[in-house]
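Forwarding these from the shared drive since the link keeps breaking.
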Amino acid sequence: MREEYSRKMVEVTTTNLLREQDTDKQPVLDVRNLGIDFGGLTAVDGFTMSIGPTEISGLIGPNGAGKTTIFNLLTSVYQPTRGSILLNGIDTKGMTTAKVNRLGIARTFQNIRLFSEMTALDNVKVGMHNSIKCSFLSSLLRLPPYYKAERGANERAMELLDFMGLTDVANVKAGALPYGVQRRLEIVRALATNPSIVLLDEPAAGMNPSETAELMHQIRRIRDTFQIAIFLIEHDMNLVMNVCEAIMVVNYGRVIAKGTPEQIKQNPAVIEAYLGRKDG
């Protein structure tokens, strides 16, 4: 029987908010004073946060605020100019994107990056490359360990597709799938890496209202089933306010607010960032 979780958040020292049941656990992601400069331009500065092991958090802000740059820093696409990133207690400084993925961070992208000519099933299996245990020689000579690993990979990939209701498109090329289905498939591929945290970059982009409502349900279900953290960027405020337990707001590369959805809705700095300052 699935365990029910409360949305109660508590303040803790050195971080913003953590779920009540995560306060005695090591954060899955602990970021301190993160910053990056491109030439003379500071894109992100003083970014600090912690995310608990089963937390759903959101990162919002106006266009150009630095949100995707932060995701690129967290996944080692960019190396920070200053600050630190601890993933499951390990400093990721100098690591490649592949290595931080093996440590437990997975990501989807604002612009879908599936292998369009590969089937949905094969796209998911690509995400499992870190966990498939088979030697090069066994693969080359098609020895029994190869077939055993291949069967296991197929079974696991089909389980993940079934979880997101995608078994009927398993053998369809990813590029031929409807946009909303491709979004879900990209999440499945991220889950195939066996992450401890998934970063979702605008997962509702291009979705209609019914698809967005289903996505909200799936995000909660992913957290509860896999017991992992989810950190998302999203412009759909209805999704953010209804699924996230803690929200950070950035503007011009700096954090301007942290809190629960209720606190963020009423924060004057957030209102000004989105709507502008009222004159007089």
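-- next protein --
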Amino acid sequence: MKQQICILGSTGSIGTQALDVISQHSDRLEVYALTANRHWQLLAEQARKFQPAAVVIADEQYYPMLSEALTDQPDIKVYAGPQALDEIVEAAPIDMVLTAMVGFAGLSPTVHAIKAGKKICLANKETLVVAGELICQLAGEHRVPILPVDSEHSAIFQSIVGEGDNEIEKILLTCSGGPFRNCTEEELEQVTAADALRHPTWDMGAKITIDSATLMNKGFEVIEAKWLFGVPVEKIEVLIHPQSIVHSAVQFIDGSVKAQLGVPDMRLPIQYAFTYPDRLPLQGDRLDLFAHPLEFFKPDVKKFRCLALAFEAMRQGGNMPCILNAANEVANEAFRQDRCKFSDIARIIEQTMQRTTFIAHPTSLDDYIATDREARSIAMEDVKN
């Protein structure tokens, strides 16, 4: 039986690479549902090629165009709206859900997929950043595996497979350093969104590329690692590794370090999540260690304040990481739209963290939704001022 896959965010960078993996292993993997936010034309193209049972466009204004584009495909059901995302992941034939949506919007469908007992291939890091405690609790209750798709967390996972209960002394989370690693604070005052969108290693969407430039993306991954691997933030260390060859590593209590290395190709962790514990052939470049020096540096948390704020949010716990994420989404978008400076991003986030209502023990999805709404409002007010 082929594994039936639902891809949340099929038109993005992760989604398109996931479809390439599926096409290379069509004897084992099959698309059941594809979803997108606004890119209805690409979604229609993907639907024609992969013939899913259903497609969902989250932004309902694009439903007429998508529906019209697929009128000659009567076997493909077309749906629209956030509620349709929550409902499609619950479809009985689905075996696994790849959560490749960007931002807070990925939380609700992930919760619904877990409650429906679907294996989660997690590429939406904001899900664990915002509501890690809730997600882990639900995954335990419904006995749902969560397999990481981020290259760093996949590397950590691959490093601990087979280690049983051996104690982790430290997680070494690598980071390219982004395009501004060697910039001074004065130079950072002058950078533009166009500058920030030129990532030196990875080809990603605009939002995550800006997060990588501020190192907030790495801060999110610290929080994600805490929940995925049950390790306190004090045992997670970030290393700047410009070559992006060592994707991350684990140090055990005997001092031994295990790492996963490879070329920067997101199809590798995507395929590993889809087919674990099996490793299947994958077309693509192979790592040539003779061609790559391996360098490691400590991050400058004074210059890249967002990373420090992420550690602080995790230490405070409660709904603070949710506040961090909401403020970052607002500030990130404002910077991309030239409504604030690069250096304003950390300031907006920090002030939002100080002003938003703190809940030490959120108990439901509604708590996180309310926190997200309040934090966004405060951050937007800061941007306007």
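The mean pLDDT is 95. Residues 129 and 192 are 27 Å apart (CA to CA).

- D.
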